[in-house]
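To the structural biology subgroup,

Please find below the input and predicted structure for Haloacid dehalogenase, type II, which we are adding to the shared reference set this quarter. The sequence is reproduced verbatim from the submission form. If anyone notices a discrepancy with their own records, reply to this email rather than editing the shared folder directly, so we keep one authoritative version.
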Amino acid sequence: MVRALVFDVFGTLVDWRSGVAEAFRAADVPGDPGELADAWRARYRPILDAVNDGQRPWGTFDELHLVTLDDLLAERGVSVPLAVRQQLVHAWHRLDPWPDARSGLEELRRERVVAPLSNGHVALLVDLARHGDLRFDCVLSAELANAYKPAPQTYLTAARLLDVAPEDLMLVAAHPSDLQGARSAGLRTAFIDRPLEFGPHTASRQDPAADVSVADLHELAVALQ
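Predicted structure (tokenized):
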């Protein structure tokens, strides 16, 4: 029985690409805003893996985003004042939710505990929830496990803090690698299709191993009845 739902956030609940591209556009950074957003995001997984592997000390998303942004701009020979770079980092705190996210979470909350389980740190997730009026029962983060997804302890810490068995906790995500990590820790999984996460040319994704595959959160609520 699924007693609680935890949600990936970036790409699953919020549209990170549009918000970050708009921040690059507003800051007048040279280059195509969408391509800059994609290139910044592409540096996300390697630096998180470096933290999990012990090659880098723990850092919040803001700290790691500033490192990867600085690397991206330096690689392109672009000089941007620190204050502007900090504004770009803070853009990740005010991303808009997908159209079904707010009402879908409300529907799912009627029967189950709902919480984010993101690699973003707690303060960032609180800002996103307030910006998008996303109503959770609590805020869970990789920060609480001191390990980034897909490390097993991130998922198991969420189960422990919610006082549910791993098999009674379901991760909802648009990313098969995240879902596989959750399954490896004993969680149940729901794949949600976000065909515009990387813009109009987003590659098709599926996760045949997921317990449930849906097009939006309302469909998930029906599937869990």
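Summary notes: DSSP finds ten helices and six strands in the chain. The first strand starts at residue 4 and ends at 7.

Regards,
Lab coordination
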